[in-house]
């Protein structure tokens, strides 16, 4: 307390200088972003607008900290060391925050070029998946390195920070064993981003359940089924186990519709009706549209209708529509071609034979 009171004038001067630095850096920051905002309104790109959104807060923290560190007045040795360490920690965190914001900017730029809501193609889903996975991995690495660098600012635990940073030593081994599931999923995420067994909006079958890949996180994948159930599947599952990916080579799919009809059905007219139905809808991509007999039982014929669409959602709607339209066609034009049971009735013959007249009377 005696030291504080004896240096009250120095502390007041220090507080005023720090306040001037803070106000000046904030004014400079606001002025710079105001100029960049006016420039961004005249451009059509998404990079500058994304920078203004994501980089505003990190740079607002970086400028005052850098000003205090480089322009601070002379201070006592103890206070100078404490202020330098605190400023270094804040500066490391704010720079890491800015780097994470830069990953958001890169993702926004790529999403603008490959917008999955406008062009749902195989290449678009491939790029979207790679960007999301690599961004999450980059963010994890940035924060891990940031934590290690913050630890190295403390002399007493600098060795621990060096161990974490190098991922070696006893502490690194212990942490690696403790975080084995998380590290396994992180490595699996990197493998998924490079090998691409699944992508965003892929139609996959996991444990007998079919659904669409809705989200690929750092440790899990969200698979949404047709009835809006969400399957949460670990990333390691797609590396270690077998699953079906129906859109691996492309988003276009072929679907089947099965109908059961009587033997007197007219296949030529059924095929003409199918062609007219497909020609009147935008759900069909024009590639596959056929009708064939796949099975003949003692009572009915099984007809298989193959149709194709550019993605799984359109294929589902197309199959429902084709099934309904063909049934309506049969009901209106060939009701006798619907499945029915046959029964053969033959007249029964009764033979009458002449019998004896009875016992003779005496």
Please give a structural write-up.
The chain has 362 residues and is α+β, with helices and mostly antiparallel strands. The protein is 57% helix and 14% strand. It contains twelve helices and eight strands. It has helices at 2-6, 8-42, 47-54, 56-71, 77-113, 122-151, 158-166, 169-178, 180-195, 237-240, 267-279, 312-333; strands at residues 203-206, 209-216, 220-225, 230-234, 244-245, 253-261, 289-296, 301-309. It has a five-stranded antiparallel β-sheet with strand order 4-3-2-1-5. It has a three-stranded antiparallel β-sheet with strand order 6-8-7, covered by helices on one side. Strand 7 and strand 8 (301-309) form a beta hairpin. Helix 2 (8-42) runs antiparallel to helix 4 and helix 3 (47-54) runs antiparallel to helix 5 (77-113). The longest helix has 37 residues, at 77-113. The model is unreliable at 1-8 and 350-362 (pLDDT under 50).
